[in-house]
Design goal:
There is one protein chain. The chain folds into two domains: about 120 residues, no CATH class; about 120 residues, no CATH class. It contains eight helices and eight strands, in the order βαββααααββαβββαα. The longest helix has 23 residues.
Length: about 260
């Protein structure tokens, strides 16, 4: 019995596009492309380990950009960030379709591969948009601004690019506690690193005062008989609420000296 072919890579975007290069170079037709960490072993599958190679990554990256479009390449990146369990094979089918139709590829909205990719792109883009407004920084004792997020998708890199321009004169950290990674910005550049926990930290003395003022203001402007919880949830799903100052600092275990 012929086994289904599965490509395994290191989980990086560079690794994913290296897989795309190998598919074309080897003329393979894998059933799945997945990171090694997400692998569920099966006896009916044949696994091919693909090592990340930057020259192959760049060839695919530049080929998509020149032969299809920059916008198409952005969608490929958002598909990767989605962490959808089938994102690897969705990327492959999307790129195959892109090469078929060239610069007009994104106009073929009825194509199932284009449509599937656009739906995932929309979800990732919507979550990014939400966090641009929902992110709440808190001032640590050492003057660094710190924010916690737990997004559905791995959007920390596209948040980092935005806030490096918006808050270019501050030191800040955006910590994705769900994935144990963080963006660190030093007023010049931002980098992403593994970051398990910030441990015991201290706020600046006036930080909790600012939080209390903000909560009081938020409560003051709210009109009880005009509250629309359903609409609020559509703009801001409840899974995001626990890291919002206005939804209750103490409720989330924050105090003057510790941040869990």
């Amino acid at each position: 019995m012929k086994k289904d072919l599965v490509y395994l890579y290191d989980g990086s975007f560079e690794g994913l596009l290296t897989c795309i290069y190998e598919v074309y170079y080897r003329r393979d037709d894998p059933k799945q492309i997945t990171s090694k960490e997400d692998l569920t072993f099966s006896l009916v599958e044949e696994y091919v380990h693909i090592d990340t190679e930057m020259d192959k990554f760049k060839k695919v990256y530049e080929s998509i950009e020149s032969k299809i479009s920059r916008e198409f390449l952005k969608t490929v990146f958002y598909l990767y960030l989605s962490e959808d369990k089938d994102s690897g094979i969705i990327v492959l089918n999307y790129i195959r379709t892109g090469y078929k139709y060239g610069k007009d590829a994104m106009n073929y909205q009825t194509n199932p591969y284009i449509r599937a990719a656009n739906e995932i792109y929309r979800k990732v883009s919507l979550e990014r948009h939400r966090f641009l407004g929902l992110l709440r920084f808190k001032m640590l004792e050492n003057g660094i601004l710190y924010a916690i997020i737990e997004p559905d998708h791995n959007i920390i890199s596209i948040l980092g690019g935005h806030f490096s321009q918006r808050m270019s004169n501050e030191y800040w950290i955006i910590h994705d506690v769900k994935r144990s990674i963080a963006v660190f910005y030093n007023k010049e550049q931002w980098i992403i690193k593994s970051f398990e926990s910030i441990g015991n930290i201290s706020f600046q003395e006036n930080e909790l005062s600012y939080q209390s003022l903000w909560k009081a203001y938020y409560k003051h402007i709210a009109i009880d008989n005009r509250k629309n919880i359903r609409q609020k949830k559509s703009y801001m799903p409840t899974r995001y609420w626990k890291h919002l100052v206005e939804e209750g600092v103490q409720k989330n275990g924050f105090n003057k000296t510790n941040l869990d």
